[in-house]
Every structure is written in C-alpha cells, then in structure tokens.
Amino acid sequence: MNTEKMMQQTSNPTLSGAQKRERLFQLSLPASVSGLDASDRIFEENTNLKAISSQHATFRLEARVLIGSCLHLSLKIPRTLILENPLFLNISGRVILVRTEAEGNSQLITLLLKRAFNIQKTS
Questions:
Q1: What are the pLDDT digits (tens) for 2-34?
Q2: What are the helix and strand counts (H, E) for the chain?
Q3: The domain over range 3-121 is classified in CATH as 1.10.10.60
Q4: What CA–CA distance (Å, rounded) separates 12 from 39?
Q5: What residues does 70 pair with on adjacent strands?
C-alpha cells in the first residue's frame, strides 16, 4: 500500500474495521539501517524514520536496495515524560516499496516488519 495513502487513511474517521487496526505514526526518530544493498554488499546507514506502524516502517536511504531484501532497523527512542529511560528498538523486515526521490540520490523505503523485535534500555 502506498505510504501516502496509509497516512491519509489514519486521519479519516470513516475507516473500515480492517483499516482502523493499522495506525501509522509520523515520527522523525534517528535510525540505523543495515543489510545487503543491490550489489550484495553489507551496508549500514544512519537515517531518520519518516513513519512507523505495527506492520510497516518508512525511511529514506542513500544505499540502493531491492524489493524483497531483508533490512535491520535500530531506533533510538528518546526519554519522555512517561518513558523514564531512552530505549533502543531493534527490528527487521522485508522491503516492500522502493521509490526514487525526485531530489538527491535517496530512495523512500517501506519495510514490512517482522513480529519479533528486541527492546533494550540504555543508560
């Protein structure tokens, strides 16, 4: 599903039951992405998360990746009023959307996230 359509749907109060289950949050959190690029070389790149839901994550990458590639995402979740300590969320997923950006060399990447994840407390 197109990320822009998903973002528009989350603000629509007349969504069907299936669409309501998927809540997309537009966040700008620092993220580290690693995996294999289109040339089968290992890469690691720092970026900012553009949006995340329970099933998808969207961000920009300079590295070229292919649809179907498995990428690992590490997010630093900052301390807040209700979150006493900052956390690291480590999760992986498969690339389901690659869109070349009009400006620059970056690509907009959407991952279908796996259910398994790891949360670590930072000091």
A1: 444 444 433 333 444 444 455 555 567 889 999
A2: 2, 6
A3: no
A4: 40
A5: 94
Q: Which residues pair with 77 in a beta bridge?
A: 87
User: What is the gyration radius of the CA atoms in the chain, in angstroms?
Assistant: 15
- pLDDT digits 0-9 by tens, 44-75: 999 999 988 889 999 999 999 999 999 999 98
Phi, psi of 99 (to 5 degrees): -130, 125
Q: What is the DSSP letter of 105?
A: S
Query: Chain-centre distance of CA 56, in angstroms?
Result: 6
Do residues 110 and 87 make contact, with C-beta atoms less than 8 angstroms apart? Answer: no
CB 88 within 8 A of CB 77: yes
Direct distance between the N- and C-terminal alpha carbons of the chain, in angstroms, rounded to an integer = 38
Nearest to 61 by CA among 103, 6, 4, 105: 105
